[in-house]
Amino acid sequence: MFLFQFSGLGILGLGIWMYITTDDLRAAIELAQYEITTYLLIASGAAVVIVGIIGCMAIFSANRCLLAFVSTYAALTGTRPFIFYCHIRC
């Protein structure tokens, strides 16, 4: 679960860094494409961090509703096979 959380923080940090350094990379890429990528990284990183926090709260409190939410999110986004693979192989 910590790998999931740290990857979300990394994606969020990369998006924030790209948002801050817009002026330096403006000549390299089209501005519209750069902005879309930046906001997409920030949104996806924040979503991963929030779902990771909800997952930790669900595990510690044994709340079935929160566990169902995290399981549904994992099934819809395709992270479930990775979780099972890591559980078996790691």
Low-pLDDT residue spans:
none
Could you state the order of secondary-structure elements as H and E?
HHHH
Largest sheet geometry: none
Overall average pLDDT: 76
Helix content: over 70%
How many helix segments? 4
Counting structural domains, the number is 1
The radius of gyration computed from the alpha-carbon positions, rounded to a whole number of angstroms, is: 16 Å
State which percent range the strand residues make up.
under 5%
Which structural class best describes the helix and strand composition?
mainly alpha
Beta strands, count: 0
Shape: elongated
| End-to-end separation | 13 Å
Q: How would you describe this structure to a colleague?
A:
- This protein is mainly α.
- It has one domain.
- It has helices spanning 2-20, 31-61, 64-77, 80-89.
- The longest helix is centred in the middle third of the chain and has 31 residues, at 31-61.
- The chain is elongated.
- The protein starts with a helix and ends with a helix.
Features:
single chain; mainly alpha
Task: Compile the SSE list and pairings.
Layout: H1 2-20, H2 31-61, H3 64-77, H4 80-89
Helix pairs in contact: 1-2, 2-3
Quick structural overview:
The protein is an all-alpha fold and 90 residues long.
